[in-house]
# Entry
Amino acid sequence: MLVTVFCYLLVLPGYVFSLIGLKGRAWSTYFLSLWGALMCKVIRLEITVHGTPPKPPFFFVSNHLSYVDIMMLISKLRCVFVAKNDVLSWPLFGFMTRTVGMLFVNRNKRSDVKRVNKLISDNITEEQGILLFPESTTSGGFKVLPFKASLLVYPAENNIPVHYSTIRYETPEGEINASDSVCWWGDVTFLSHFTDLLKLKKIYGTITFGDEPILNNDRKLLAEHLYRKVSEGFVPIIEQSEHAKQYSSS
# Structure
C-alpha cells in the first residue's frame, strides 16, 4: 500500500498536466512503470524477459492469468491498460487507477465498446501505448482462452499492427503451484488471494515478447491470429488433468 500510494502521488501530476493541455503522459507512464517494478520487488517476483518490448506508440495484447500480470507487464512497458469495470471495486487500487488515466470497459454491455475504442484512439501517443487482455478474464494457466475480437476493432479498422506477449509463472519447489497461488481465478476474493500471495517466498515470471506485430483489418481474423501466436508460445503452468486430480482428492 505504501509503494502504491507513493507512486500514485508521483503519477498524478502527469495526469493533471495532460488535462490542462501540457505533455504529462511521459511523466505518468514513467512512474507507472516504476510502480510496477517496485511492486514486483514487494511480492518477490523475479522476471525473465525473452524478446524486445515495443516502444510507444503501440497496441499490445497478452494472455491473462492474474492481477500480477499488470505489475509485471507495466514494469517493462510504457503504457496504460484497459481493464474490466470490476477493477474499480478493488480497495484503494480501483480509485487510483481511475484517477491516473486507466481505461475501463463494461464487457457485459456491447454498446460500451464504441466508447472504449474512442478512448483507445485518444490514448495511443508517442509517450504511451495501450495494453489489454483479449481473453476478457483470467484463468488457472491450463491454456490460453479464446480471444474476444470486440476490443480489436480499433487496430483492425485503423490498420495498426498489434504487438503481443505470452506470460507465465512458476513457484519454487515446496510452494503452492502458481496455478493456485499466483493465477487469480474462480471465486477467490482479491484481498484473500493477495494476502496469500504475499506469503510466497519467491515467484518466477516469464514474459516472451512476439518477434513481429500482427496486422489484419478484419478484427475476427486478427483475434484468431493473435490467439494462435500467443498459444504457440504458452507453456501450461499445470496440466488441466493434474489440477482436476488435486481437487478431486481434496
